[in-house]
């Protein structure tokens, strides 16, 4: 994107992946200030779990914060975990979840 002076003011690169259910965003890199700020996305890929299959699993932000989602058998969000202090996230979700901020929707 260029600003009113014609200079590049925003450089955003998006990486997509083709999954069996369609194309999804994996990474978004914002290099506007040369910082290469990357946001990463993961999805549930196990088709044996229809409630979560193809749904957003986690988002990791450039500042280290993250969100992790679990779904019920009907595909509704069953729990949402958010980063707290320096708790990291793994491929299996936040560990230990007792140190994450947990949101459980009322259905």
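^ structure tokens above, recovered residues below v
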């Amino acid at each position: 994107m260029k600003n009113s002076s014609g200079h590049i003011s925003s450089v955003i690169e998006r990486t997509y992946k083709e999954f069996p259910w369609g194309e999804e965003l994996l990474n978004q890199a914002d290099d506007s200030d040369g910082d290469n700020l990357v946001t990463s996305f993961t999805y549930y890929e196990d088709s044996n779990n229809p409630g979560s299959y193809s749904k957003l699993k986690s988002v990791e932000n450039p500042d280290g914060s993250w969100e992790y989602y679990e779904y019920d058998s009907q595909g509704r969000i069953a729990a949402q975990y958010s980063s707290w202090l320096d708790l990291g996230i793994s491929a299996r979700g936040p560990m230990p979840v007792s140190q994450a901020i947990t949101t459980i929707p009322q259905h």
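The chain has a mean pLDDT of 83.
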